[in-house]
Amino acid sequence: MLINLGEKNSLFNQFLMQIRDKEIQKDSMRFRRNLERVGEIFAYEISKTFKYKPLEVTTSLGIAKMVVSDEKPVVASILRAGLPIHQGFLNYFDQGENAFISAYRKYRKDGTFQIKFEHISGPSINGKTVIIVDPMLATGSSMILAYKALLQKGTPKHTHIVSVIASKEGVEHIQKNIGDKNITLWTGAIDDELTVKSYIVPGLGDAGDLAYGTKE
User: Fold this and answer.
1) Which domains does the chain have, with CATH numbers?
2) Interval 72-87: pLDDT, tens
3) What is the DSSP string of the chain?
């Protein structure tokens, strides 16, 4: 299943516009905060898919009947760009568990690259709801690598893949290689173009550098 939040008019698109704007991007703190805020919106939307049960809570004046979820998802982020969105999810899923995946593009002399996996840290995901977050879904290769790495920790009940901006090619790659009924792909925009260096156009640039500074 593919869900594109940007297709409907909401405050989400205001934050997405600011994330894309090259002038607003110059403020790295604001850039991180906007990623965090879209993470919060994704969290709210995903919470609608959880199971809920009735509960009674004692107030100072009586008993209130409520319907709540006791779901404790595992939020997994691909370092380092996924960290602000990860925080957005934790702002809402404060009882959630956490996993972190270290993966990066290793470039060759001819400009091509391969996705390198280094390490994964996290709990068992067996029978749990897993949410994998990364700002950009370009080729889809790093997301597939992250998903397969997480499977070392067990078999999830359901997996939500969240990317703020995706390429059409990346979406198709995910659907072809790991598409099944237990995976939902969430995004805020699907851009048509992917450059020869696998950057999304118009995209937003390098989310990790914009959030935390350039790297060597």
Assistant:
1) 2-48+73-212 (3.40.50.2020)
2) 999 999 888 889 999 9
3) -EEEGGGS-SHHHHHHHHHH-TTGGG-HHHHHHHHHHHHHHHHHHHHTTS--EEEEEE-SSSEEEEEE-----EEEEEETTTHHHHHHHHHH-TT-EEEEEEEEEEE-TTS-EEEEEEEEE----TTSEEEEE-SEESSSHHHHHHHHHHGGG---SEEEEEEEEEEHHHHHHHHHHH--TTEEEEEEEEESEE-TT--EESS-S-HHHHHH----
